[in-house]
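pasting histidine kinase for the record, 704 residues
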Amino acid sequence: MTFTISTLHLICLFVALVAALSLLLGIAYRGRWSIASPLRLAVLQRRQRRDRKRRKEHIAALRKTTEAVNSAKRQSQRKSVLLTFVAQLQKSYISGDNPLQLSDQLLQFVLDFTESKFGFVGEVVPTDAGLPHLRVDSIINMAWSSETRLLRESQMKKDFDSDSLNNLFGAAIHRREFITSNSPATDSRLGELPPGHPPLSSFLGLPLISGELVVGMIGIANRSRGYDDTLIDELRPLLTTVAQLIVAMKNERSRLATEERLWDTLDELVEQRSRVQEYAAELEVKNHELEESRRRAEASNLAKSEFLANMSHEIRTPMTAMLGFADVLLEDGDIQKAPKSRIDVIRTIQRNGIHLLGLINDILDVSKIEAGKLAVEQVQCRPAAIIKEVLSLMQVRAEQSQVELKLRYETETPQEILSDPTRLRQILMNLIGNAIKFTEEGSVTLAVRFIESPEWPMLEFDVIDTGIGMTLEHQQNLFQPFSQADSSMSRRFGGSGLGLAISLRLAGLLGGDVSLVQSTPGTGSTFRFRVGVGSLESPAMVHPQDACDESNGSVVSTAKANAPNCLQGCRILVAEDGPDNQRLIRYFLEKAGAAVTMVENGQLAIDAALEALRQNEPFHVILTDIQMPVVDGYEATARLRAAGYTGRIVALTAHAMAGERAKCLEAGCDDFASKPIQRVHLISQIESHYHAAHLASGDLAKRT
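structre below
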């Protein structure tokens, strides 16, 4: 048999030996000095007292050592118990035990280990907003009364969101630290406890942390000795393991959920595959039918586009002759000698021709906008110059209606903006033209102001009239195509009802809008047009008085274009198949001083241009119609460019479809002019190209 002698046994044996020796020595001394003198007796007593003191010190040291040994033994045993449970918990998880059973086992162990009476174990699940959400997995059975039983049942089925965690339970989650409270009743962190919750004498909140995240929490309460850091240190290995297990379970749940979704998807795919196979033949038939429908639709759209383009050409070409020759008659030097009735007839032709042209343009614009084929430019332009031109054109109509046309600048305005001057002009003319049309007496005022904004600065135009106004009922469909306030207005004032609808959509393309500010029957209306000024940085601003002076001044371009002999010395080749337009264009150009060569198709234009080049007398400008017999303008231009011709070519077309300008430029043209011909604009264009041709050839001095 083997005996094991521990350190404690050795210490006890040593102390016993010392005590025995001391006793023997005392007896010996007493026997030896029994007849001693009193002095010897005093010495003996002093030694005995010293020996007793030493024995007490030895016994105290022995007791302290014994307690330390026992404490270390208990700590070792508790650590062993905890680590054994940790290993068992890991093994149970690996074996696939129910997570809720593991949670119950964990809670019971912690309660036993810490000598606590109450507790719960929960998992923190973040919400979509990233806030903590505690799901209770296990809670101690508190079914001692109906209230506590209901509390336990409710908490086992309930999650705690961040709002309900403003108490001792939630402090551990929010602060990510251990929460110890050995006097909860006076603790400001206690918060509100659920009805039926037992009183708390002490509480310990243990957050389960993985990395930077709180993944769960263990809460225990009512330990008779309270809670301290020593107990927390003992629990740390368990807390770390449980946090890791929670993360592992989360990952496993996520994996299983993903796998389940994949299987569901696979089942759906298998099911859908059979349906797809069933639909495959039908789909092929449908695709064939759709392809046929698409071809027919494209052919129909192409036919419509070609028809619209041809109709535009067929209408605009005679309109060019009508309006052009009306201008010629009115500008003839002898017109003042003509009878007033003849002048009235000519002006009637001119007025109705312009009205008809406006209707045609409106219809084409609506068609292009609805088809998404109307594009706007973004170029630098001067608002004051555009306003000047619009007011100059509207002044004649205002005088005919005996309406005063006014202009008012209310703020400084940018000298230049980035916009589409053509569309800007069109919107202003629509709004002012409408105001004049519906004002029988009084005035029409254009008020202009600049709206500063760091995001989107804008120019704002108010068109204010003293006309007939509108009722609320009449305002409902104001911006709908082909709509006027009522049918009686259409019969009384005419018009297609397209102007406001077009203006609204054009304003949207320009980064602005058109709206009705106010309208009162019998008093008048105010329309507001806003347009973005673009991304110009620190534009120069014009004072209101200077802007008014510029806008009220004469139209410089008109005076310059009307100047006699402005095209003196300019050789122009005109390719135009319409006899009426031939005479009109020749009249305009020759009156401006140009030498005109006229041909009726593209082939003759090619021959004439190349022959003049060989004779060293090239044309300064070629003005070519697009739609001509034999060879059209596109092909004629392309063939001239292919032959190395570098002279200026200006396309003249009655087509008004989207992309016409780009198509002309792509064919090799330098510029584009549309029919009906605007004499002032056409002569200005040709004069500009005439100057450019001179500068390119270096013979500007030849011009006389």
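Residues 29-36, 490-494, 553-562, 699-704 have pLDDT under 50 and may be disordered.
Residues 229-331 form the longest helix (103 residues).
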